[in-house]
From TrEMBL:
Keyword field: Lyase
Family statement: Belongs to the ectoine synthase family.
Gene: ectC
Record's keyword annotation contains Magnesium: no
Cited HAMAP family: Ectoine_synth
Protein name (record): L-ectoine synthase
Pfam families: Ectoine_synth
CDD domains: cupin_EctC
Reactions this protein catalyses: (2S)-4-acetamido-2-aminobutanoate = L-ectoine + H2O
Coiled coil: none
Length: 131
């Protein structure tokens, strides 16, 4: 059993900040449980393009407001506390954060903790051995 308090991740290699967002990663590939689990902040007034070509992501919004845009269809979805979205089709998407948006995210396959979005918004597919 592991118990982790979010502040224990601050300033560690599990605390990743990159421009529009900050992700604190509780569970990573190296933990060997088959998924990764993150607390991610999308900063107010930002627009972040993402595309998880190599991962499935499930996101639960627990604070803040914004819009999720499916860049393939143009469809827009309201983001607010209590919203879940599942990127099970590797959709290219954009998150427009009206306010700071706090989310809990699960990735499969799990990320190693070293990933950042490339120029296309994609996380590379890394294994725990490469971490």
């Amino acid at each position: 059993m592991k118990v982790i308090h979010i502040e224990e991740l601050d300033g560690t290699d599990r605390d990743v900040e990159h421009g529009n967002w900050r992700s604190r990663r509780f569970v990573l590939a190296g933990d060997g449980v088959g998924f990764s689990f993150h607390d991610t902040l999308l900063k107010a007034g930002t627009e972040t393009e993402m595309w998880y070509a190599n991962h499935v992501e499930c996101v639960y919004v627990y604070s803040g407001t914004g819009t999720l845009v499916d860049r393939e269809t143009g469809q827009e979805h309201e983001l607010r506390p209590g919203t879940v979205y599942l990127l099970d089709g590797h959709e290219k998407h954009t998150v427009r954060a009206e306010t700071d948006i706090r989310t809990a995210c699960v990735f499969n396959p799990p990320v190693t903790g070293r990933e950042v979005h490339d120029e296309d918004g994609v996380y590379p597919l890394l294994t725990a051995d490469e971490a």
